[in-house]
Amino acid sequence: MWGKPRQPPMGHKEFTALLDSEGRVVESKALRERVFYGGIEHQLRREVWPFLLGYYAYDSTYAEREYLRSVKRMEYATLKQQWQSISPEQAKRFTKYRERKGLIDKDVVRTDRAFEYYEGDDNLHVNSMRDILLTYSFYNFDLGYCQGMSDYLSPILFVMEDESESFWCFVALMERLGPNFNRDQNGMHTQLFALSKLVELLDSPLHNYFKENDCLNYFFCFRWILIQFKREFEYEKTMQLWEVMWTHYLSEHFHLYVCVAVLKRCRSKIMGEQMDFDTLLKFINELSGHIDLDSTVRDAEALCIEAGENGAASIPPGTPPSLPLDDGTLYPQEDDVL
């Protein structure tokens, strides 16, 4: 059971061939398919990622994108000014701001510091990451900042190399993945529930094993889903996986099929060693750095095709990264006092 072999990454010439004379992507499906099967050459990512993330519209022209960037740059500066203008006196009276700033300051200095782009003291990129996350916490005040967000931002900033552009790409990504960070954890629970349904469909012996061993909550996959395998692969591989998932080519929920693919590969070990929840959690965490990306993506593709409509039907509507169902409240708050 294998998906198609991976192709070499898409280069600039090939990408340009997919655009009309004014810069519109002629057929977004062809672009998404190409990225799904081969990924993108690194230097081209900054042009293509904004499309995949939904920051650029596929039918936008070169001129429209140029205009969008300049408008958004001003908008970003305005948003950034909101927290930059907070005086020490005001900060004393603004607990939420102090708490969030403290969290962000702590997290950015721990995010990907071994990676060249972010290493060393007084690293400007680390400062940019902090500024973007603080600005985001004002832009989306209801959600604010949560641990794990810096993991998503880090590759985006590395690729875009521009603070404003990175911010808006991050905003677009959070439109889909923000619910991962909801305080009620509903976004995560929905995905873990969908994962259990997919394992039941695609690997019933493993599903039954989890059932018998009180592992049906699938919490051992929490980290995989929360930050989309960011800690499981080296940096470049993470970017390759993300752009595959962001195409939504076979499914918006391809990440769940990636989970199934990895679990399926480990099934004989999990069942053979009679792992209980704690052992399983430790085992899954220790897979980090030992998962082969290409074969996993190919397995996930084959599983996604095998599952077909039954797979899609196993995933509740509105499950991240689907755009949230519009019920008026994007981010349910527990402590509304107003």
TrEMBL record:
Native species: Arabidopsis thaliana
Subunit structure: Interacts with non-phosphorylated form of RAB8A; phosphorylation of RAB8A at 'Thr-72' disrupts this interaction. Interacts with ARMC12.
Pfam families: RabGAP-TBC
Superkingdom of this protein's organism: Eukaryota
This protein's name: TBC1 domain family member 15
Keywords: Acetylation, Cytoplasm, GTPase activation, Phosphoprotein
One annotated GO molecular function: GTPase activator activity
GO cellular component, one term: cytoplasm
Xref: InterPro entries: Rab-GAP-TBC_dom (IPR000195), Rab-GAP_TBC_sf (IPR035969)
Compartments in which it is found: Cytoplasm
Sequence ranges assigned to domain Rab-GAP TBC in this UniProt record: 39-249
Record carries keyword Acetylation: yes
SUPFAM superfamilies: Ypt/Rab-GAP domain of gyp1p (SSF47923)
Known function: Acts as a GTPase activating protein for RAB7A. Does not act on RAB4, RAB5 or RAB6.
